[in-house]
Amino acid sequence: MDVTLPARGVRIGGVTVAPGQARAVAIALAARPARAGRVARAVPAWVVVGTKPGPRISVIAATRGTESGAAAAARAVASALDPATLVGSVVIVPVLRPGGRFAPRRKATAAWRFPGDAGGTARARDAFTLFSELVVGAGALLALGAPRGGRRATLAARGALADPRVRRLAAQSGALVTRAPAGAGDLVRAAGTAGVLALELSAAESPGDEARAVESLRAAVTAALRALGALPRDGLPDGVPSKSRPSRASASEPPTTVGPTVRVRAPAGGLVTAPVPAGAFVRAGAVLAEIAPTLPGRATRVTAPVDALVVEAPSRAAARKGTVLFVLAPLAPGARPRRAPAATGEPPPREATKLRAGWIEHVELPDLAITHLKAKLDTGARTSALHVARMRTVDTTAGPLRRPILEITVPGGGRGRKPHRVRAAVRGYVVVRDTSGRTERRPVIETALHLGPLRKRIAVTLTNRGDMLYPMLIGRTALGASVVVDPAGRFLLKN
User: What's the burial of 138, exposed, middle or buried (CB within 10 Å: 0-12/13-18/19+)?
Assistant: First the structure.
């Protein structure tokens, strides 16, 4: 006998939205001293609860208060969602600022550092409230934004690249590039640390002409909601054209490039002419744009330093010397496409973008002050492991999810370097079975990994590997789809 569980209401901002309803709510923030003419501080949100049980997903846009295209895309998604066809619930915040008001361009800075602190300053309490209402208890978080600097940008995703769920969701959204999230206090990073599947999607066009960026973000969110199970795969919400449905092939393929980016600055001030559009592939030495002086004279060429995908391109016709004009996502060093990519948007063959590594490599873990450490790259292992001589709990993290902070003794890396003690927050615990069949419960931390030119954050389990030849093992989850391991090679990469 099949048993179907009833849908449940969602409580946001002190208001319970019942199944089959869609309504606006307000998330009250920390009170400020009374003053004449001051209104209550709250962040407006749109809550849609389906008639069928399913995941709870938060869609948050314009975290800096200036990303109008992202806000428009969030509004379009909110207008298209139908409670009758929705599975689970979706909470949408088009502008993450008090009153839902946009910020002046000159104040385009992040208002809060997440996850906040319930006993801290008013700003910290605001962040704690929003994090508790929108992230804690959610199954996934989709943040919509735009790059800083007013540049045009192709659809890109940011998230914890060590999590295969994040990489899969980025591919299913149609994002062309995946990058690591920002530093401490970033909403997406804080949500990922709390165990929530979090992804930031960004795109932008020229000011006043954001239709393509809005449509790109809206289609990406729709595809992500479908991949998360909130929308049926055999149907689309009202107002969503069928052409926005990602193909089976594109949904299964990872984004084109994963890794650090290269910024190309203006060598001189002047007028920017014939810039290469965002989303195009260029060869090293190709002309990205020309900067003409304001008086008659010879223009200065801006060239690409590496073979790369153009992630961001200038949207304004004027530039000052030193201004960032382009942001490039380079191909792996040594990799060359079968046919040199031109600035036409044609992607190179996928095998050309792979990074070739040996089964033994030197790695760096800068967060743990570990340099030149020998590591075994094991595609037969799913998780990664780091040798620790001893560990003990010394503190707990702040915020709604308090996690242990460990003091661990790790290898220094390199000949003659002594082990040293560092501190790291525990992300979670896993049970690992070794080759002999023994199981062990290990703490998991998140740290930065430098493997040759590859820079990414990975999850690492902590255990005593004193009886092993190599103090670190890197599994296939950390390597990801961008690395190919040569079983006959050793030390093929240089950090």
Answer: buried
Contact 404, 425 (CB under 8 A): yes
Q: Which two tokens stand for residue 3?
A: 């048993």
For residues 50 and 7, is the Cβ–Cβ distance under 8 A? Answer: yes
348 has a pLDDT exceeding 70: no
The DSSP line for 14-38 is TEEEPTT-EEEEEEE-------TTP
Summary mean pLDDT of the chain: 82
Q: What are phi and psi of 213, to 5 degrees?
A: -65, -40
Token pair for 64:
């800096």
- SS3 of residue 82 by DSSP: coil
Contact 477, 385 (CB under 8 A): no
- Whether the bond into 411 is cis, omega within 30 of 0: no
Q: Could you tell me if 404 and 396 are in contact, meaning their C-beta atoms sit under 8 angstroms apart?
A: yes
Give bridge partners of residue 91 from the DSSP assignment: 47, 58
List the beta strands (DSSP E) in 29-164.
42-49, 52-61, 87-93, 140-145, 152-158
Residue 212, CA atoms < 13 Å, CB-side half-sphere: 11
- Tell me the C-alpha distance between 368 and 372, whole Å: 12
d(CA 116, CA 385): 31
pLDDT at 493: 86
Helix residue ranges, H only, 228-326: 248-252
Quote the pLDDT of residue 193: 87
Ranked by mean pLDDT, the top range of 104-108, 178-182, 425-429 is 425-429
- Using alpha carbons, select from 320, 307, 319 the residue that is nearest to residue 273: 319
**C-alpha angle 211-22-88 in degrees, rounded to nearest 5:** 95
Question: 138 in helix, strand or coil?
Answer: coil
The pTM for the full model equals 0.64
Residue 241 has a pLDDT of 42
State the sign of the Cα–Cα–Cα–Cα dihedral 485, 487, 490, 492: negative
pLDDT at 22 over 80: yes
- What's the pLDDT at 212? 86
All residues at 6 or more sequence positions from 211 whose CB lies less than 8 Å from its CB, including other chains: 205
Task: Choose between 35 and 249: higher pLDDT.
Answer: 35
Rounded-to-integer distance, Cα 96 and Cα 127, Å? 11
H or E element, residue 449: strand 439-451
What distance in Å separates the CA atoms of residue 299 and residue 479, rounded to the nearest whole number? Answer: 43
